[in-house]
Structures are given as C-alpha cells and as structure tokens.
Amino acid sequence: MLEEKIEVIAYSGYRCEETPRIIFLRGERIEVIEILEQWIEEGPDDRTTKRFYQIKGNDGVVRRIYYNEKIMEWFCKVEA
To answer: What range does the domain containing 52 cover?
Structure first.
C-alpha cells in the first residue's frame, strides 16, 4: 500500500485535528459518514505518533487515513 497526502476538514475538540469530517482525495470531496475504527500508533525509531481512522465515505468506499502528529499532515493508504 502506498500513502497519499490528503486534505481533511476535521472537528477539533480539545485536541487539534481530532475527528475527520470531509476528505479531499485527488480533487474529489468525500464526506465521512462513519468512522468504523480508530487507533494510535507510535513509531519505534522516531516515536512519531500517528492517529489512524478507518472511515466510510459518502461514496461507499472504506478507506484508512491517518494524521501524522509530528509533521501535522493527513495521509490516505491507497492500493498500488
């Protein structure tokens, strides 16, 4: 799987960039209708925290996206 940088509009609660609401992938606007799963991973070498979300978009596609807290950017895991 490859990673592609995406833009995300997120609900910001007490933490910045907390919950994704809309993603922009390859020029397409996709509303997040359901968050199926979420988890946090920390890199073993650089200890970078990534917040992962498995989401279902209004296009019916399930995607895995994550927020890299170190560089403050969103990414989508896409098939090669």
So the answer is: 2-78
